[in-house]
Q: What sequence folds into this?
């Protein structure tokens, strides 16, 4: 997950969660939602009448070709009923927010569309987004609560897909070292100390020595035991796990300067600096699974669930024997939930129809290709609670064994451990994360400590959080 323009400081940055349904902000992958429907989807139903339809404009970032692909999906919706006609408006990524701001000023915003994760709360605070709490009224299911973007306690958007952070591991490396696999069950999650201890047993120098052994050479490590992704938005999970956080629960105050938050960040840095179980990472690129698990240099690594579909399926076909587990924890068991937003703009004259379109468009049936491949996870709670639906989703060759994945992903995602990423409830997260990433650069290399780096820049971080850099 990259920072800056790529939505949400990296949120969807790997080629994954960014599709036409608005998950993340990687312009190169913004429209993987081809809208493939499963047999029996309501999208195949034909209208019974030909009354004049309400016209809805849906905006998205992407090329004209990507817009045409999404329009083909919308055309299925248009043909499925006789009340609403959706027209897709594709805008190049680099101009998307500029164009929306211009349209907002002119009072000409589309009815609905994609919006950067880090822009949802800001736009809502400026009165530009509709309350969507009624979108799922009367439905048999609704999105997981961790996927609701909320302003002043009300949902102003729902994520178009779900993603959580996991621990991936190489089963062959664990077997060779005779180390038990990390647990997939939340109630058996490793403590941080257990995680580090296992990582030491899985770290080998060129002479087969482990950290703590006589003669171990930290300069000649050939296999590392662990890697914890240190992109700023993912680091928030560890600060929360240690009893701190980046922000207060209501998102109004910065907490990254508190001792618990600083300690958590330093523990991540010390995996490389002191424990000698992790390779150096400076928190700038979102290719952690490719650099670690897939490269065969690291036994276990943290990152988002989307990696199952974007890279691990191919690696599995090539012989990688990997597993998934819940994250270890410091004090509290925590993972982060995230997903890009589709919104209803407040300037629309047809909020009800706009919500009806989004509800249809975001349905699992219309994103099945992304879900079944492992790039996206469903948003509706019934896919997590109804075993028949869970099996339809998970029992396929693209996923690890059913029981393992269900415990480490499906159950984990609906547990109290799943916390919404900061952009679900507070503002200016890209500014904050970009600055934090810059500040922490020298922490990862040991030139300074997390305490010194954050303390010296705390006022600037607080200013970034309020939009006053």
A:
């Amino acid at each position: 997950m990259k920072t800056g323009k790529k939505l949400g400081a990296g949120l969807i940055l790997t080629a994954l969660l960014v599709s036409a349904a608005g998950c993340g902000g990687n312009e190169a992958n913004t429209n993987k939602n081809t809208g493939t429907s499963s047999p029996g989807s309501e999208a195949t139903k034909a209208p019974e009448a030909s009354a004049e339809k309400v016209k809805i404009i849906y905006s998205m970032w992407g090329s004209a070709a990507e817009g045409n692909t999404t329009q083909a999906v919308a055309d299925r919706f248009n043909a499925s009923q006789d009340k609403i006609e959706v027209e897709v408006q594709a805008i190049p990524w680099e101009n998307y927010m500029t164009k929306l701001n211009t349209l907002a000023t002119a009072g000409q915003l589309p009815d609905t569309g994609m919006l950067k994760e880090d822009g949802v709360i800001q736009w809502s605070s400026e009165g530009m987004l509709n309350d969507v709490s009624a979108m799922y009224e009367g439905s048999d299911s609704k999105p997981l609560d961790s996927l609701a973007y909320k302003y002043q306690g009300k949902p102003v958007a729902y994520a178009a897909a779900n993603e959580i952070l996991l621990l991936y591991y190489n089963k062959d490396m664990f077997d060779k070292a005779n180390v038990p696999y990390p647990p997939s069950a939340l109630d058996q999650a490793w403590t941080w100390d257990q995680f580090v201890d296992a990582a030491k047993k899985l770290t080998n120098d060129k002479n087969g020595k482990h950290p703590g052994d006589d003669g171990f050479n930290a300069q000649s490590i050939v296999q590392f035991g662990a890697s914890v992704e240190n992109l700023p938005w993912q680091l928030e999970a560890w600060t929360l796990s240690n009893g701190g956080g980046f922000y207060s629960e209501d998102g109004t105050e910065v907490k990254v300067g508190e001792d618990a938050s600083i300690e958590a960040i330093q523990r991540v840095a010390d995996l490389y600096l002191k424990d000698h179980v992790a390779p150096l990472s400076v928190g700038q690129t979102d290719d952690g699974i490719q650099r670690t698990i897939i490269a065969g240099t690291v036994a276990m690594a943290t990152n988002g669930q989307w990696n199952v579909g974007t890279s691990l399926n191919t690696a599995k076909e090539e012989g990688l024997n990997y597993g998934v587990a819940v994250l270890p924890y410091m004090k509290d068991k925590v993972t982060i939930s995230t997903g890009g937003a589709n919104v209803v703009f407040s300037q629309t004259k047809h909020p009800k129809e706009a919500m009806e379109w989004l509800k249809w468009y975001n349905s699992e049936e219309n994103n099945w290709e992304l879900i079944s491949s492992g790039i996206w996870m469903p948003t509706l709670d019934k896919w997590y609670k109804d075993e028949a639906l869970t099996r339809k989703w998970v029992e396929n060759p693209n996923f690890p064994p059913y029981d393992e994945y269900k415990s480490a992903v499906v159950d984990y995602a609906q547990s109290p451990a799943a916390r919404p990423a900061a952009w679900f409830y507070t503002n200016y997260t890209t500014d904050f994360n970009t600055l934090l990433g810059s500040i922490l650069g020298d922490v990862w290399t040991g030139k300074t400590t997390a305490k010194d780096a954050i303390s010296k820049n705390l006022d600037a971080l607080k200013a970034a959080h309020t939009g006053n850099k």
Observations:
- Residues 165-337+429-465 form a domain with the D-Maltodextrin-Binding Protein; domain 2 fold (CATH 3.40.190.10).
